[in-house]
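Query structure, 249 tokens:
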């Protein structure tokens, strides 16, 4: 069952053979999967080594980026705040002679930063790391955005949403859903979208993401591309049933 994809069964395209070296991503002890939508309280206790689909949107459905400078800043925040030793914001870091080179708090598997919401696939690699990273990421960017636009108050809608990625099928389809999320939402203007899609399909493969957990299950990047775009076709057919879309639109 694909929880984050609203229990939709999305099989790989025909004739695509997957390696599946990770057939069973386990459910951590004490882990509660899901999200209490009525109360807005997460039922998840984050655990080291586990994968999570993280998402949120702008408060009152507002845009969280207004131009390329904002979009690039939001993307930069994903990498700069993913460090145990980071103190202060990106403005302070811009004056530092040397950037912190400490251990990351999380593995960022893939992401899509849309104009009014974001999706992340994250693995916690340090106890408390995911919550700490998200606090920095959301708080740091919100401070920048408010200062730049001379506004006050929250930028994002409540606490970020989180769902546990409990098995390998969910992991693979979540990667497709997130990498191609702007196409899932059928956004016409993608100028302000920042996605890890190119990291997955370009031969260079450079970028901020830890992609092996996904890509090693395919014979090539092109094979992953075929899988993800095939899954996208099914997602668009089932689009009205997606809980995330109901929350984010």
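Result returned for the query:
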């Amino acid at each position: 069952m694909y929880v984050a994809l609203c229990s939709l069964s999305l099989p790989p395209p025909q004739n695509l053979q997957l390696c599946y070296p990770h057939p069973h991503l386990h459910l951590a002890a004490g882990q509660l999967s899901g999200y209490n939508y009525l109360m807005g309280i997460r039922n998840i206790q984050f655990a080291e080594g586990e994968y999570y689909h993280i998402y949120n949107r702008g408060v009152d459905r507002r845009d969280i980026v207004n131009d390329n400078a904002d979009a690039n800043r939001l993307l930069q925040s994903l990498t700069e705040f993913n460090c145990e030793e980071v103190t202060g914001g990106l403005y302070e870091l811009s004056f530092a002679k040397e950037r912190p080179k400490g251990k990351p708090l999380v593995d960022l598997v893939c992401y899509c930063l849309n104009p009014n919401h974001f999706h992340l696939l994250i693995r916690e690699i340090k106890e408390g790391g995911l919550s700490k990273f998200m606090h920095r990421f959301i708080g740091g960017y919100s401070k920048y955005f408010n200062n730049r636009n001379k506004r006050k108050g929250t930028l994002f809608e409540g606490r970020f949403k989180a769902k546990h990625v409990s098995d390998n099928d969910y992991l693979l389809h979540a990667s497709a859903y997130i990498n191609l999320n702007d196409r899932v939402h059928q956004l016409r203007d993608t100028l302000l979208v920042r996605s890890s899609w190119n990291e997955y399909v370009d031969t260079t493969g450079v970028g901020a993401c830890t992609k092996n957990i996904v890509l090693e299950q395919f014979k090539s990047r092109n094979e992953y591309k075929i899988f993800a775009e095939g899954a996208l076709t099914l997602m668009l057919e089932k689009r009205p049933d997606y809980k995330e879309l109901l929350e984010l639109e």
